[in-house]
Amino acid sequence: MKTYTARPGEVPREWYVVDAEGQVLGRLATKIATILRGKHKTRFTPHVDTGDFVIVVNASKVILTGRKMEQKLYHRYSGYPGGLKSSTAGDLLKNDPERLFKHAVHGMLPKNRLSRRLIKKLKVYSGPEHPHSAQLPRPLPDHI
User: Fold this and answer.
1) Which stretch of DSSP H or E encloses residue 40?
2) Which domain holds residue 24?
3) Number of domains in the chain
4) What values do phi and psi take at 85, rounded to 5?
5) Partners of 63 in the beta sheet?
6) Do 21 and 58 touch, CB atoms closer than 8 A?
7) Distances (CA, A) of 63 to 33, 94, 103
8) Contact present, 55 and 14 (Cβ < 8 Å)
9) How many CB atoms lie within 10 A of CB 31?
10) Contact, 52 vs 14, CB < 8 A?
11) CA triplet 68, 73, 78: central angle to 5 degrees?
12) Percentage of the residues of the chain whose pLDDT score is greater than 70
């Protein structure tokens, strides 16, 4: 019996849509990272992109538990002296919920070149509308 190794061209891709309204950010981000990576498929191969596309709607209505809204900080650095900007998770959720969601999912992906390719398959929208209806996305199953 030989071990199966997936090739990039032979993996079928699905599109899933997730409604983030009322869901906890970290728990939802782990499910999305699993789908993006392809670990829910029997054809999973660690070094090949076998994952599916994920569309997240209502990202601005996600929940953060505990006191993360006031205490959790996100930093960005311009590269210049004095260019370090910090903002709390609450400010980021109010001003740029897409960036907050992508940051949470990106932290749960492997730290290599493959993760930069995987994060491009995540589409995040703060409202209920998305422009990907032509791809016929299905709702994310609960068992994943």
Assistant:
1) none
2) 13-64+98-139
3) 1
4) -115, 135
5) 24
6) yes
7) 18, 12, 15
8) no
9) 20
10) yes
11) 160
12) 100
> How many CB atoms sit inside 10 A of residue 68's CB?
16
Q: Identify the CATH number of the domain in which residue 20 sits.
A: 3.90.1180.10
pTM across the whole model: 0.93
- Give a yes or no: residue 20 inside a domain: yes
- How many other C-beta atoms can be found within 10 angstroms of the C-beta atom of residue 41? 16
Q: What secondary structure letter does DSSP report for 18? A: E
pLDDT over 90 (residue 142): no
The band of 144, judged by pLDDT with boundaries at 50, 70 and 90, is confident
Amino acid at 127: G
Which H or E element spans position 139? Answer: strand 138-139
As beta bridge partners, residue 14 has none
Given a contact cutoff of 8 angstroms between Cβ atoms, the answer to whether 126 and 19 are in contact is no
Domain for residue 43, yes or no? yes
Give the C-alpha separation, 106 to 111, whole Å: 9
Q: Tell me whether strands 53-57 and 122-124 are parallel, antiparallel or unpaired.
A: parallel
**CA–CA dist 80, 77 (Å, integer):** 8
Q: Indicate the residue type of 143.
A: H
Amino acid sitting at position 118:
L
Q: Residue 95: enclosing H or E segment and its boundaries?
A: helix 89-95
Place of tokens 């709702």: 139
